[in-house]
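Hi C.,

You asked whether I'd gotten around to modeling the 405-residue construct. I have! Everything is below, sequence then structure, no commentary in between.
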Amino acid sequence: MDFILLIVGMDANAYYMARCYHEKYHEKAYLIGKNPIWFTSLSKIVIPSYYPNIWDEKEFLKILDKFYNEHKDKKILLISATENYITMISKNKDKLKDKFFFNYPSSEIIDTVVNKEIFYKTYANNKFITLPKTIYYDCSKNENINMNFDYPIIVKPADVVTYRQIEFTGKNKIYKIEKYEDLTSTISCIKKGGYRGKLIIQEYIPGDDSHLFDCVVYSDKNAKVKRMSFAQIGLQEHTYNLVGNAAVLINGYNQYGNTDKILASLKAFMESIDYTGYAEFDLKYDSRDDKFKVLEINPRQGRSSYYLNTAGCNLVELLVNDLIENDTLKYEYLNKEVLLSFVPKLIVKKYIVNSDYRDKALSMWKNHVNPLEYKNDRNFKRDYTLFRKNLRYYKDYKFGYWKNK
């Protein structure tokens, strides 16, 4: 093997990409990031290094340059786990392309998906995708709010990279708002917390968590879609900082139909904007008009995308085949049914409200996959931490602010 893997990030996404690498090539991945996070710090399949100033673009480039100089006898595959690093990689493609193998779109395309205001405005009238009704609020001003849709509504930051770096009491990843008074108090809380960017104010699409879907797309270096998945979510995380992330999903399963139609639309969309690399679509099925609405696009593999590996597509191997081996890839829809769950079986039984979906998930439980549970990466501290995390899920769902309805 004439290449090594460098992952930027330390979270669950970084962990399962290292797991994909280890499963296929039986080697440890190098990781660089800001701080230790237990997902990777307790793992024996990674070689982590920590840099407190890595979020500074100049420092980031120095760190990458240092890594390259230490390993330039090997080809280096570069993968990011988060948007902030992807943004810096895309902005500096010309400086990095002769040192690393990576597959990310231009910084102009990245901007249209990372910043949610730009995303919704850029693609509002796109013929291939349908978006929820949306307005915008500028936290640097005192604006009137004029909505053309009713409560409940969703409020979330447009600038997710900046928002992620701010900490304040009452901070949620996404807010579900039931009335005007709650909207004004939420905006006031966000302003006091130090966020000065735009907010997305959006119609809430009715339906429990089983109306949510996950679609992972890989577009090769020539901007042609080569892999797609389509998974129905049964349960999302219900805590303030993780809501929106899938906790339980079934790939190749869709109770609402029209899978081929939505896949064709998403494929056409990606190729129409010349997108390259991994992307994850978050969608919600809207029973009011029988359409799948795109909530957002993440310019990377998602937190739960490890299920592609079980469905027959190792996410790291696909990058190697495309970028390093220069293989000619054929299009493939990964329709194998796979159950992925971050949560214990009892959570599935108690908190998935869609009974048909729940029964389907329980029938598949024997062969379910958890991206964090890897038989070749076990030690007492990591096993104990996973055990405590599973126990904490009972509290998270009992007292979590997000309700599955």
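If it helps when you're writing up: The mean pLDDT is 95.

Thanks,
B.
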